Amino acid sequence: MFERSRKGETALLIQPHAGGPPEPDVLEEFADLARSAGATVAAMLHARIDRPNAAILIGSGKLEECKAAADAIGADLILVNHTLSPVQERNLEKALGRRVVDRTGLILDIFAQRARSHEGKLQVELAQLRHMATRLVRGWTHLERQRGGAIGLRGPGETQLETDRRLLQKRVEQLQRRLEKVEVQHTQMRRARVRSELPRVALVGYTNAGKSTLFNALTGAEAYAADQLFATLDPTVRRVTLPGGGMVLADTVGFVRDLPHDLVAAFRSTLSEAREADLLLHVIDAADPHRADRIAQVDEVLAEVGAGDLPQLLVYNKIDRIEGAEPRHDRALAEDAESLGLEETARERVWVSARDGVGLDLLRDVLVARLGLQRVLGTVRLPARAGRLRARLYALDAVRSEVHEDDGGWTLDLDMARPDVEKLAAGPDGHALDGLLPPDDDNPEW
């Protein structure tokens, strides 16, 4: 009986494809996934499968070629860039004498290595158990022995496989309950951010586009950032101060082509930050020759998680890798929007380098305009009874200077965000602030 190898540093990659040869970027991304998991890519084989083999996916002749190649390079791991059924995975392992991992299993392994938060670890384990549950039938034939018959083992005759399946199901249910509690806590935190009336912005994009680097540059945080796929899994949220006020910025997990549906479902808390945002910053690697395909793939995943209709601002990052590129702001063209089926304002573009800090001031200015953050400057006269309103103005750091009047009141010189003015104007003694806002709300000169 074949025993699954616990090693797996040297890998042979198999790229199934139909018709012509696969695109180079597909091969490169799969190799990057393997390296991100810690494997050493020794070789890659193409396998044309116009009619997938139900037992081994690839043909018998290609199977022999894979066996010879694995023996020649000393590979102890076979990675297949395709979703394998439990039967196919087990049959390939028996025929090749090595551990076989499909695309879903590979991404799960990367996620297991990168998850840092309590919730992230729970989500990864849940996705792994659901993936494993389909592989208990034929993946471990030694577990099919009946309990009972020997001294100390007589009983109802439940097989070890059935016992493991039952225990696995109990663990899945336990993880689901724990995740539901964590989700309630996160929902309460998001509601608190909504009550603060700060605009919510989420960073989305293809993995390794530089989202975490941009997040750190805008927030001053120290979120983990590296030149690798899926460097960030756990959502990170920070408040950002802008010239016209503030916003809440969330960093989310990156996407890849053919992201397994189980993983999309498992990381619902991370993706909820994107789903509930007021604006999506779609970060794109400007130096990637396949960036148009990457944009389409991210849009597809966003539509799948219910965030496809949210307004977007395209941030073309890594212009430092393009000779002669300068930071700039491109307003959306009507023909672009029409061809993409989106509103014209949805495809504005800002070109930056998050690593070098180039273009970030331009990005902040565009965010101020998109989020409606504008400053209100003026002088107000507060009566003595408006002490609570005066305290609120100081709490917002809106007072530039103050003069104490003889009647006990104050004359304040203010500089504050317009949403804060509107909020305070609706409260007690708020009529004292009416003069700060123009009578015609559509007048751009205020």
From TrEMBL:
Task: List, alphabetically, the NCBIfam families matched.
Answer: GTP_HflX (TIGR03156), PRK11058.1 (NF008280)
> Could you tell me the keywords of this UniProt record?
Coiled coil, Cytoplasm, GTP-binding, Hydrolase, Magnesium, Metal-binding, Nucleotide-binding
Can you tell which superkingdom this protein's organism belongs to? Bacteria
**Described purpose of this protein according to its UniProt entry:** GTPase that associates with the 50S ribosomal subunit and may have a role during protein synthesis or ribosome biogenesis.
One annotated GO molecular function is: hydrolase activity
Q: Which HAMAP family match?
A: GTPase_HflX (MF_00900)
Gene from which the chain derives: hflX
Name the record gives this protein = GTPase HflX
Region (Disordered) location: 1-22, 425-446
What does the record note on quaternary structure?
A: Monomer. Associates with the 50S ribosomal subunit.
